[in-house]
Design brief:
There is one protein chain. The chain is an all-alpha fold. The longest helix has 21 residues, at 130-150. The radius of gyration is 22 Å and the shape is globular. The protein has helices at residues 13-25, 31-44, 52-60, 74-80, 87-100, 106-121, 130-150, 157-164, 167-175, 217-220, 236-253, 263-283, 291-296. The protein folds into 3 domains: 9-62 and 156-192, no CATH class; 68-146, no CATH class; 207-296, no CATH class.
Length: 307
Amino acid sequence: MEKRKRGRPEIPQNIQEYCITAAMKYPNMPRKELVAKVERELQEKGLKPPGKDKMLKLFQQAPDKTDEDKPWSIGKSVQYGLSTEATSDLLRLQRFCLAAGLEFTVRQAKWGCYLHNQIRKLDRTNKLDPSILHQMCQDYSYREKICESLNIDLDTTDLDIPIIMPPPEYSTAKQAGIVREIVRNTIMIGEDDLDIMKPKQVWGRSAAGIVADEIGIGAANLPIFNLNLGDDKTGEKVETINNIYAYWLKSISHGPKWGNMEIQDQQQIVKRLFDAISIQVQEKNFEWLPVELLEEVGYEEVCLEVD
């Protein structure tokens, strides 16, 4: 009797998406390293990674960038006919991304037009959390590109569910098999793959106030929001200080000597930056430059231009 050949089990769609997303985010990473990284991350999530050969084939399905993957601007909204009603929230999202070192593309802005009002409804005071909006725009953008790559219909039901369901209801629906779990790819955006410092995007918190885990608990959890900013019901002042902190943090982390410094020294520099900005905020001195810190990380000369 002839034995029937068993068909190879199909790779779950969420695993396929995870692998393709990783390839899109890290196009220049050596594939051997990317395979190891994705395997580790999937295992940490309790998921079974595909074999090496299958994963490499999935990496090859990562679509090339198009015009919609270029940086967004108001001009791009005009060019692509995006909603004028969403412009204010898109500008706020662009500002957040500049501070956090994240990309903000035309494709993400397109999804932002659909999502921004829904994200506001997640907050009892109707405030827009740009970190949540960016995460959602990123998720939807990757889903769109992956569906095009796999030649399947664009289905965002699982991404929609957390917006319309409160957490307990979503958790129950997920466990009951009513909706499938979202497996987010947590690899940071960017081709340069900074080893030490990259403002980290976290749900419900400003990316500008959080340092990558490698820096250590002491510096990583410095709460920028605890600065004595006075009463500011709009949150605008808090966001401004978050961004000032992020701009300097990013500049310092690109210093010529930064990569060769000991972790403890990096932690101290981050803490000194935080403390110094605290003082400058209280003194309302926004023309201040962290000259000493910039010079310590290898910038040869720091000049303050005066008109």
